[in-house]
Amino acid sequence: MPATASHRIAINGLTDIGQVRNENEDNIRWYNHPTLPFGYVVVADGMGGYNGGSTASTIAVNYIGKHLEAIVNPTFQSCTPNQQELIIQSTLIEAINVANAEILLAKQKNPQLGQMGTTVAIAIIWQDQVTISHLGDSRAYLWDKQGFIQLTKDHSLVQELIDSGSLNEDQARQSNIRNQITRALGVTQSVDPSINNYQLTQNCLLMLCSDGLTEYLDNGQLDYVLSTHRPALECCYRLIDDANLLGGKDNISVGIIEYTLEAAHQSSSQATFTAPPAQPDEDITVRKFVQ
C-alpha cells in the first residue's frame, strides 16, 4: 500500500520559560516532511547554570535534527523496510554521538561552560514505525483509545530507588534528589542512550516533554488532557498552561506527533501495539529493537 496514502502525521512543539527561571535552558526542534509520512521531535533540557544549559540543549537539538532530516533521500526510499529501520537507528546513534562530542568541544573551548550538559528525548516516525530514544529524565509517552503508556524510563537516581522498591511514585515526585540524572549528553566521552522501536497499528498521539511538565502533572493527568483536549496538537499549549498555573518552577517543553492511519488499513487489534510477554507497563507495545 502506498505510504503517502495510508499514513498521515502532524507535529507541533512548544517550549516555555515558566514562571520562575530567568532563562529557558530547554530547547525543542521538530520536523514534518512536506510529502512523506516522516518526522521527528527532539526535546532537550539543559543544565549547567546561566547560558550553559541553553547552549548545551541548543547544540543537541540542532545537531540531532540536522542528521535526522538527512535520512529521507532517494537511497533511503529505495531500501526495504528492514533496511530503512536500520538506517534510522544507525543515523540516530550517530547523531547522538556527534551532539555529545560537540557539547564536549564547546566546553573545552569555553571553560565558563564547563558544567553544562543536557537531557534529550527523541521520537522519529516513518510510516507506521516509531523509534524512541532518550538520555536523562525527559520523557516520551503514547496515547490511543486503548490507554496511555510511558515509553521511557528515567535515567535518574530517583528511578533507581523506585526500581529497588525504596520509593514509590508519589514519594519520588517529592524527593529532593528528583533532578539528579545518571545519563546525559555532554558529560562523558561516550553515551549510552536507550533506544526502542515500535510499530503503530492505529491512530495515536506521541508526546515528548521535559521534566518541567512532569514535575506537576502525573500520568493520569497527562492522560486526561490528551484524551479530552482537541485539536490534539493544541495539547502543547494546554499542558504548558497547566504546568505554569501549578507553579512553573522550571522551563517546560512539549512536543506532540499525531499519527493517523486510514480506516481501511487500521488493525482490528485491541491495542495500538501487539502485546509481547513483557513487563506490565509495556503490555501494549511491540518492542522491535532495544539498545
TrEMBL record:
<feature type="domain" description="PPM-type phosphatase">
    <location>
        <begin position="8"/>
        <end position="259"/>
    </location>
</feature>
<dbReference type="InterPro" id="IPR015655">
    <property type="entry name" value="PP2C"/>
</dbReference>
<dbReference type="InterPro" id="IPR001932">
    <property type="entry name" value="PPM-type_phosphatase-like_dom"/>
</dbReference>
<dbReference type="GO" id="GO:0004722">
    <property type="term" value="F:protein serine/threonine phosphatase activity"/>
</dbReference>
<dbReference type="InterPro" id="IPR036457">
    <property type="entry name" value="PPM-type-like_dom_sf"/>
</dbReference>
<protein>
    <submittedName>
        <fullName>Stp1/IreP family PP2C-type Ser/Thr phosphatase</fullName>
    </submittedName>
</protein>
<dbReference type="Pfam" id="PF13672">
    <property type="entry name" value="PP2C_2"/>
</dbReference>
